[in-house]
Amino acid sequence: MTRPSSVIPIRSEAAAAIESRALGTLAYIRASIESSSSMDVPGMAGIVMGMVGLLAAILVSLPRWAAHWLGIWIGAAAIALIVGGALVARQIVIRGHARYWGPARKFLLCLCPALLAGAVLTGVLYAAGATGVIPGMWLLLYGCAVLSASTVTNAGITRLIGVMGALFVALGAMTFALPATAHTAMLGLGFGALHIIFGLLIGSSADAR
Which of 105, 182, 192, 195: disulfide with 188, CB 3.0–4.6 Å? Predict the structure, then answer.
């Protein structure tokens, strides 16, 4: 009695092509979902904010303006937030409101609580006459805000944003231990240099994608 010969199924080229197209479609859908749920922060926003920070540090370092350091830094922070926010809003408009409004809202919800806490504590510490604590508090809380916001940024820049936030936290902790004469330099290093450096890195990362 002869045994039936083994039947070896032959995969058609058409089936392979269909599977390949299906995998490509799934990959595209997955990338679109990930992109639509994360915030892509423009590097130019960091660069411009850093330039404002450096200008404030230079101005405060001049003997004529040193006594007005608190008002100068508050003004610089307001300008930096307005300009940075405008650049982020511009990107949302360019990329499309429907796609990026959700991620932008989550980004702000992560970023703003620590910034609001910093604004409230600034008033409290000023009223208590403890202005020497303010620079370290600014750096620390801003770092916490950036670290929190990094969790909803685009996967390509999440690590960069997280590292920047961690460095701000470290600078804030160091500033508490330094004399008041070093506070301007620490603020300039954080809000000036770090913003510019990471703005350039984020811009380079975006160009590479």
Answer: 192
Q: Which domain holds residue 91?
A: 39-208
Q: What sections of the chain are H helices per DSSP? A: 13-36, 43-61, 69-95, 97-127, 134-150, 158-177, 183-187, 195-208
**Residue 126 CB neighbours (<10 A):** 13
Split into its structural domains, the chain has a count of: 1
Share of the chain above pLDDT 70, in %: 75
Q: List C-alpha distances in Å: 55 to 33, 50, 80.
A: 40, 9, 11
Check: CB of residue 86 under 8 Å from CB of residue 30.
no
Candidates 191, 179, 95; CA nearest to 140 is: 191
Mean pLDDT of 37-43: 69
